[in-house]
Amino acid sequence: MTKLNTRLAYFDWSESGIIKATTHPIDPTPEEVEEYLAGFNTMISSVSGPYVIFVDASQAKWYNSKARTQLALGADALQKKYEGRNQGSFVVVGSAIVKMSLQGINLIFKNQARQRVFTSYAKALAAARAKIAEVNKETPSSIKL
Cβ(8)–Cβ(26) under 8 Å? Predict the structure, then answer.
């Protein structure tokens, strides 16, 4: 299985080393956030070796504080669970204001996932592809993570 659709996002990991999630424009319930995090867990566990995460959140609504906290805690737990394999996150947001806000949050909380934020889908995807190509070039296949 290389694709999964949840109420909060559509997941696609058919491109080698890149786990993609495209969020749907909804105000998620706690159950929908759990389903989203479970989707990420399913994807990550099915990928062997290093990977990057690409999230197109350009159509996402502004989530309530409970959903944001739940997402942050869940993402942190996944980062710790798969430590060493995640080579970074590339997130597309809908506006420069949201981009600055997310960059500020990452700076304050010293995000360990090496997250880069973009307002351009094409630039974010190019950066994600370049990163996974760089990682694959540096990691001989005999010692893939």
Answer: yes
**Up-side HSE of residue 63: CA atoms within 13 Å toward CB?**
21
Q: For residue 4, give the nearest of 30, 50, 40, 34 by alpha carbon.
A: 40
Give the number of other CB atoms < 10 A from CB of residue 13. Answer: 22
Contacts of 17 (CB under 8 A, 6+ apart): 47, 49, 50, 51, 52, 132, 135, 136
Is 5 within 8 Å of 24 (Cβ atoms)? no
Residues 64 and 32 sit within 8 Å (Cβ to Cβ): no
Q: Which parts of 32-113 are beta strand (E)?
A: 51-56, 86-92
**What sign has the CA pseudo-torsion 92, 38, 87, 79?**
positive
The model's pLDDT over 6-53, given as tens digits with 9 standing for 90+, comes to: 999 999 999 989 999 999 998 889 999 999 999 999 999 988 889 999
- What SS3 string covers 49-66? CCEEEEEECCCCCCCCHH
CATH dotted code for 3-130 = 3.30.750.24
